[in-house]
TrEMBL record:
<dbReference type="Pfam" id="PF01230">
    <property type="entry name" value="HIT"/>
</dbReference>
<dbReference type="GO" id="GO:0016787">
    <property type="term" value="F:hydrolase activity"/>
</dbReference>
<protein>
    <submittedName>
        <fullName>HIT family hydrolase</fullName>
    </submittedName>
</protein>
<feature type="active site" description="Tele-AMP-histidine intermediate">
    <location>
        <position position="107"/>
    </location>
</feature>
<feature type="domain" description="HIT">
    <location>
        <begin position="13"/>
        <end position="120"/>
    </location>
</feature>
<keyword id="KW-0378">Hydrolase</keyword>
<feature type="short sequence motif" description="Histidine triad motif">
    <location>
        <begin position="105"/>
        <end position="109"/>
    </location>
</feature>
<dbReference type="InterPro" id="IPR001310">
    <property type="entry name" value="Histidine_triad_HIT"/>
</dbReference>
<dbReference type="InterPro" id="IPR039384">
    <property type="entry name" value="HINT"/>
</dbReference>
<dbReference type="InterPro" id="IPR011146">
    <property type="entry name" value="HIT-like"/>
</dbReference>
<dbReference type="GO" id="GO:0009117">
    <property type="term" value="P:nucleotide metabolic process"/>
</dbReference>
<dbReference type="InterPro" id="IPR036265">
    <property type="entry name" value="HIT-like_sf"/>
</dbReference>
């Protein structure tokens, strides 16, 4: 049940972590955001950054809180890279169930990366890619721009 006042959802695991009901290895906290280690890390140091309020998807976050959320990410990414002594991170959001989002509370994955970890770029997620014509690209660009 989502609570309109507090933007908290009782049955949400990340809301319960934010509330301290479920323990987490918290690495960062401010008024608007929390960062903690992923319980099933893809690489050592895999960290999740969440807004404290419950929003399911990126576009559900009000603009001011979205800025705060990005501010937290901006702090956490270099700290993770430094702590794990890695040259890079993959920073990713599974934004919606069809994209693989399992916990319906916005979270950015910060995954420490190294050149020899064998995981590849996010482009490696897609085997079959479209081969659009210029006209199709023009259409899709116009369609997106019309909504902005
Ligand atoms: P998603 O697939 O929704 O993008 O990712 C959810 C992530 O949350 C997964 O990587 C999973 O390991 C992590 N996760 C799920 N439950 C818990 C939990 O109770 N504690 C922590 N720290 N991470 C969790
Ligand atoms: Zn939540």
């Amino acid at each position: 049940m989502a609570d309109a006042e507090t933007h908290m959802s009782d049955d949400c695991i990340f809301c319960r972590i934010v509330d301290g009901e479920i323990p987490s290895r918290t690495v960062y906290e401010d008024d608007a955001a929390l960062a903690f280690l992923d319980a099933n890390p893809l690489t050592m140091g895999h960290t999740l950054v969440v807004p404290k309020d419950h929003y399911e998807r990126l576009d559900d976050i009000p603009a001011a809180e979205a800025t705060d959320f990005y501010g937290a990410l901006h702090e956490v990414v270099p700290a993770v890279e430094d702590a794990l002594d890695v040259p890079a991170t993959t920073v990713a959001v599974n934004n919606g169930e069809a994209a693989g989002q399992e916990v319906p509370h916005v979270h950015a994955h910060v995954v420490p990366r190294s050149a020899d970890d064998g995981a590849g770029p996010i482009h490696a997620l897609f085997d079959a890619r479209p081969d659009p014509s210029d006209a199709e690209l023009d259409d899709v660009a116009e369609s997106i721009a019309d909504r902005l």
